[in-house]
Amino acid sequence: MPDRIDIENWISRIALGDRAAFSALYDATSAKLFGTCLRVLKDRAEAEDVLQEVYIRIWRGAGRYRSNGLSPMTWLITIARNRAIDRLRARQSGVRRGAEGGAGEDGVLERMASPDPGPEAQVAAKGEARAIALCLDELEADRAAAVRGAYLDGQTYAELAERFDVPMNTMRTWLRRSLMKLKDCLSQ
Fold this sequence. Notes:
By secondary structure, this protein is an all-alpha fold. The protein is built from 9 helices and no strands. Helix 1 crosses helix 2, helix 3 packs across helix 4 and helix 6 packs across helix 9. The longest helix has 29 residues. The chain is elongated. The chain starts with a helix and ends with a helix.
């Protein structure tokens, strides 16, 4: 399995229309995403159809991907899972309409799978969050607080510079260097 940097690189190149990057991403991730679709749908042919829809969405939506500290695989798995759930809901809705003449009467749609990330994605996210927290702990306390302020609390450079009583360019340098240290730490 390629690492997160490879996948993020492919996604950013896909956003620019790079077909070779799309092919590389497909080769590296299709088995995992197919498994996600198959677990939800329990039907191989339908999972294959949904997998095609997933990669169309990835091709069209790559420009909207933002690295937010989570694995890009989490983003890809979420797309696959959501498309599979949409297909399952459509299938259930069609079966129920044919059998009962209407939808929603017995609450089946309300009891179906939640659109929230599944257990696999939650475990991956928790592991990544733990790794990020450990790497943040390796930074100097003020640098870690600045990173948290900027990327978790949404504070601006100006607000952080004022909070830590440093010039704005110094704050930019702190954040850039801290992010480089975090990237190194997370890649180990």
